[in-house]
Amino acid sequence: MNILLASGSPYRKSLLERLKLEFSQASPDIDETPEAGESARELALRLSREKALILADQYPDTLIIASDQSAALDNRILGKPGTREKAIQQLSSCSGRPVVFHTGICLLNTATAQHQLTCVDYTVWFRTLSSTQIATYIDAESPLDCAGSFKCEGLGITLFEKMAGDDPDSLVGLPLITLTTMLMNEGVYPLGR
């Protein structure tokens, strides 16, 4: 079957390339605004599923991989900051505290209309950061398109005291351990049988 990554994210593309599978990429256009009363985990699951479903009619006989991530500090959703000022505010509020990242992942088989959907949680404990450290980091990596205002695959790793979770790639935005299991459930084995 064809494989489609339902994302325009260069981070997710780079992660999926690690599985050495041929795939195409398309960016679904959906409203990512949280619904009233929706938790960060519920948001990640809903958006992952919606991203896959919105592309289903355009891609018959395809396994569509869709993922979405949200972060929560004290059960409050941290979105993508978009501006330097908001990124500084986000990292200041995270300083010295744990933040839970919820990465929803959906694998939709458009031939059968069956889907697998789950959420992978990953917790990071931020160091106590000075305003100089925060500004220096923001200026160095400009993580304005990242939930939580950091890129853990780069200098952002220095912001943490520790991390905990079952699937470290979920923190970047595509949980590969979980995805591999989903693909195997569909008969796709990256290493062969």
Characterization of this structure:
- With 193 residues, the protein is of the alpha/beta class.
- It has one domain (2-185): Maf protein (Alpha-Beta Complex), CATH 3.90.950.10.
- The protein is built from five helices and seven strands.
- The protein has helices at residues 10-17, 40-56, 84-94, 131-141, 176-185; strands at 2-5, 24-25, 62-73, 76-78, 98-109, 114-126, 160-165.
- Strands 1, 2, 3, 4, 5, 6 and 7 form a seven-stranded mixed sheet that branches.
- A hairpin with a 2-residue loop joins β3 (62-73) and β4.
- α3 crosses α4.
- The two termini are 16 Å apart.
- The mean pLDDT is 95.
Summed up:
The protein has about 190 residues and is of the alpha/beta class. About 30% of the residues lie in helices and about 25% in strands. Strands 1, 2, 3, 4, 5, 6 and 7 form a seven-stranded mixed β-sheet that branches.
